[in-house]
Amino acid sequence: IRFYLHDQFTGSNRTSAVVLPPLNNETLFGQVAIIDDKLTKESPINSKLVGRAKGFLVLDSLSSSSFLQSMTVELEGRKGTIVFHGQNPFTESQREIAIVGGTGEFRNVQGYALTSSVGSEP
Amino acid sequence: IRFYLHDQFTGSNRTSAVVLPPLNNETLFGQVAIIDDKLTKESPINSKLVGRAKGFLVLDSLSSSSFLQSMTVELEGRKGTIVFHGQNPFTESQREIAIVGGTGEFRNVQGYALTSSVGSEP
Amino acid sequence: IRFYLHDQFTGSNRTSAVVLPPLNNETLFGQVAIIDDKLTKESPINSKLVGRAKGFLVLDSLSSSSFLQSMTVELEGRKGTIVFHGQNPFTESQREIAIVGGTGEFRNVQGYALTSSVGSEP
């Protein structure tokens, strides 16, 4: 399964919100955000919507750019959710996030997801 | 295992507290609550206490009523905890929450729990 | 695998920060802290650094001293992370925390960790 997650934290269609501010400006340690992000089939945000990722991000690194990403993913046409919970050092080119459980069609899933950042747009 | 969870967020015996306020009034997106809720054997809150559920709820949906529910459950007479972590669209009649781990007697558990809402009382 | 975690919440080299204050002074229910703690090979903090533990703590007990501890552990010389997520009644002499997943060398791990408190230093 492959999808593109759009974390829109600015603009009029924001899908994430900072609920606790960072304690430093370098690594943003201390910041907490809540997300309800769109997942699309291809990279452009206006490509086919295939699901949503709901959860939160905790900026928890004093030395690098990284957050603990805890979210459930629901996909169009599939019943249930996949539960992601793991560290995402988001400036590295490729990362792994742990999958810790699931419901519906995804009951008892365990494993990991590979992620990379495609880019950021205003 | 079946139990009834009582989330008392008002009154003098509150077992949960909102620690971050919602960012909208429709879905309460952005709200975070911490819970130490009673679990009882039957539906009435004054029925036999069988355990506690401790953890937190993150309201993470822009379009519906849902929270990411992360909690550990301890049961009277049993050693250890069951770790729940998953999305709970709490207005649906029946939901599943992922079980992602456990300790003591519940070491290495994985699976899911079926939940439904019985009602709310003042 | 054995290591010592140093949660330095005071002083000039703090590795954890309270981001939400407690709602009571007895059990600190309601408090949330974010951590990027040092892991060392032996008990003294100046012993060999073997890794970091990043994540957060949610004080979620009305009746005792306990927090939900959610963190990823990275170890020197090992690729990947171990994801811990469970209740830590930190005043008990020995506790178990659930391990719910992992990445890299620790892909698909599940289990538990035994923890105990060695002491606190200023």
Q: What would a concise description of this structure say?
A:
Chains A, B, C: Its main location: secreted. The first copy, chain A, has 122 residues and is mainly beta.
Account of the 3D structure:
- Chain A is an all-beta fold and 122 residues long.
- The first copy, chain A, has one domain (4-115): AOC barrel-like, CATH 2.40.480.
- Chain A is built from no helices and eight strands.
- Chain A has strands at 4-6, 16-20, 32-40, 49-59, 67-75, 82-88, 95-102, 111-115.
- In chain A, strands 1, 2, 3, 4, 5, 6, 7 and 8 form an eight-stranded antiparallel sheet that branches.
- Chain A is globular, with a radius of gyration of 14 Å.
- The mean pLDDT of chain A is 93.
- Chain A binds chain B through residues 15, 17, 19-20, 34-36, 54-56, 70-72, 74, 80-81, 83, 85, 100-104, 107-108, 110, and chain B through 20, 23, 29-30, 32, 58-63, 66, 68, 70, 85-87, 96-101, 110-112.
- Chains A, B, C: Homodimer.
How is this fold's topology laid out?
3 copies of one chain form a homotrimer.
Chain A lengths: L3 E3 L9 E5 L11 E9 L8 E11 L7 E9 L6 E7 L6 E8 L8 E5 L7
